[in-house]
Write a structure and sequence with these properties.
Layout lengths: L3 E5 L3 H13 L3 E6 L2 H11 L3 E4 L8 H11 L4 E6 L4 H9 L4 E4 L4 H12 L4 E2 L8 H5 L13 H11 L4 H8 L3 H12 L1
Parallel strand pairs: 1-2, 1-3, 3-4, 4-5, 5-6
Helix pairs in contact: 2-3, 3-4, 7-9, 8-9
Length: about 190
């Protein structure tokens, strides 16, 4: 039986490319989503075996979408495919329930290897993610406490950073000062 895959990214070209790669690898693409809220809805409807998702998506970022998915589905495998190599993003992805994390600059063969590994029950982390951080990245808190070390405001700041917003734009959106934004960004990194 083919692995049923749901793909989420806010770029149509990336979605189409991933669909082609996934189907060439012998999997079935059961659906696509362009934002995190749509992804959560489709996971409940389509019941995929694997979700390949980006972190930076509108409406609801990938990390928050993963947290919501994990609240009702602990079996679906989650593979993040992101441009973000910063350890804070990788750590939060795993704390939200990720089974794997790849950088978008990865080779197609690595994506296939990651899918195979994850579907066999292993964790897969892109080799480009620095080895010194792997132990920290995989040391997620106990189930039910994902992301408990970040405050609600820090998560909001992280969401907006993931969307590519500047400190000034984040400050305006959240009605806080740019100094407060920088403080939250520093706290997230600690």
């Amino acid at each position: 039986m083919k692995t049923r895959v749901l793909v989420a990214d806010d770029h149509s070209v990336v979605l189409e490319g991933l669909r082609n790669i996934i189907e060439a690898a012998g999997c079935e693409t059961v659906g696509t989503a362009e934002d995190g809220r749509e992804l959560v809805r489709l996971v409940t409807e389509l019941k995929p075996d694997l979700v390949v998702l980006d972190i930076s998506m509108p409406v609801l970022n990938g990390v928050e979408a993963a947290r919501q998915i994990r609240m009702f589905d602990s079996a679906v495998k989650l593979l993040f495919l992101s441009m973000h190599s910063d350890p804070v993003y990788v750590r939060e992805a795993f704390r939200a329930g990720a089974n794997g994390y790849l950088l978008k600059r990865t080779a197609v063969s690595e994506l296939r290897n990651a899918i195979t590994a994850i579907m066999e029950g292993r964790v897969y982390v892109s080799p480009q993610v620095t080895n010194k951080n792997v132990d920290e990245l995989l040391a997620a808190p106990a189930a039910g406490s994902f992301g408990s070390d970040l405050t609600a405001r820090q998560r909001q700041v992280l969401q907006l950073v993931a969307e590519g917003k500047t400190a000034k734009e984040i400050a305006a959106t959240l009605n806080i000062s740019t100094k407060t934004v920088e403080f939250h960004k520093t706290s997230i990194m600690d």
